[in-house]
Design goal:
Helix content: 25-40%
Oligomer: single chain
Structural class: alpha+beta
Low-confidence stretches: none
Length: about 250
């Protein structure tokens, strides 16, 4: 059956209440990276203030948020390459998260491996990388759940490993329909659910809820992610993301 082309009116009629918690993963050195450049905490604060002044302004409707929540919406430079619900170029920001930390780690691992697939001569890192997973709470009366009907009939589009055109077209129309949150199945973890916040007003709390510290190790055998508290261990074999041809062609022996 041909895929349905959604209109603004059609998406408006499918909007529903959505709420819950989402997890996002960032580099663990998001705050301490400047510490090695200065001698005191006061100097670090002054340096970070200077750096902050070089960045595009945070949009007015996001200025009440913690910087970890506001960051995906602030950058005014052209988006270098499209993501699932965001086109390349000067396009509105999207806060990507997942229902569970394991899904967020799977998504992060995939993108790390994609970097090495695109850079075949780069050796595997000698040490594990430090990551911070943090949770946020969201609530909206204008959400779309792509994991349920009628949207789930097109699940092959929402979870396609490389072609985001259908998702980006839906996101464009969803914004016209004032949709704030999209739920979709993960293409990287079986059974996982991802969350795309299209508007800062969808956050129901302005700061992260919980944080976890993870270490991610990549090597010729695959990828392993470990969280000490709570104790969690995830392993991704060499064929874990083989549905993406870029990862399938990755040179593991380097």
């Amino acid at each position: 059956m041909p895929s349905r082309t959604w209109t603004r009116a059609g998406l408006s009629s499918e909007r529903r209440r959505l709420s819950g918690v989402g997890w996002r993963v960032v580099e663990a050195q998001h705050r301490v990276s400047t510490m090695k450049l200065v001698d005191t905490l006061d100097e670090q604060s002054a340096l970070e203030t200077l750096i902050e002044g070089t960045k595009p302004l945070i949009p007015p409707d996001c200025q009440h948020l913690h910087y970890l929540l506001a960051t995906p919406f602030r950058y005014g430079a052209p988006y270098p390459s499209g993501s699932r619900f965001r086109r390349a170029g000067m396009t509105p920001g999207v806060f990507y998260a997942s229902r569970a930390p394991s899904t967020a780690i799977a998504e992060t691992t995939f993108h790390r491996l994609l970097f090495f697939a695109d850079s075949p001569d780069t050796p595997w890192p000698l040490d594990a990388g430090d990551l911070t997973a943090f949770s946020v709470r969201f609530r909206t009366t204008a959400g779309l759940d792509l994991t349920t009907q009628p949207f789930d009939a097109d699940r092959a589009h929402w979870t396609h490993p490389t072609d985001y055109a259908f998702c980006q077209a839906l996101a464009d129309t969803a914004r016209e329909a004032d949709v704030e949150v999209l739920l979709s199945r993960s293409a990287r973890e079986m059974g996982g659910v991802n969350i795309a916040l299209l508007a800062c007003r969808a956050f129901s709390r302005p700061e992260p809820l919980e944080r976890q510290t993870w270490r991610l190790n990549l090597n010729p055998h695959g990828a392993r992610a470990v969280c000490e508290f709570p104790e969690l261990r995830l392993e991704f074999t060499r064929d874990a993301f083989a549905n993406d041809p870029r990862i399938a062609a990755l040179n593991w022996e380097r």
